[in-house]
Amino acid sequence: MDYIISFVIGGLICVLGQLLIDKTNLTPARILTGFVIAGVILTALGLYKPFAEFAGEGALVPISGFGYLMASGVEKAVKDSGAVGILTGALTAAAGGICAAISGSVIAGLIFKSKEK
Questions:
Q1: What is the pLDDT of residues 53-87, one digit of tens each?
Q2: What would you measure as the largest C-alpha separation in the chain, in angstroms?
Q3: How far is CA 7 from CA 13, 17, 82, 109, in A?
């Protein structure tokens, strides 16, 4: 049942993003940024954690989950290190994902040859 809930919630988040692309004049970059900021704001309000516990990976895998991850990292770092945690917490929490994205991009760049359109 957890897989079904995760799939449905993740799908609904993606449907919301697709509707924003299709029905508004917002660029994909603005929508992406909006989802990250929404994740941060919902985390600050204490709403994203219960949502993530209910939806599982369906709430954590979409880009709004990245905002939740960064906000949670800042919250933990501020508790541990004080005000310095504001600057270090988000990157510390997201370091694994950022490293994987950069590594994957470098590998893809080495394997595939770019072409002009």
A1: 999 999 998 899 999 999 999 999 999 989 888 88
A2: 50
A3: 10, 15, 38, 31
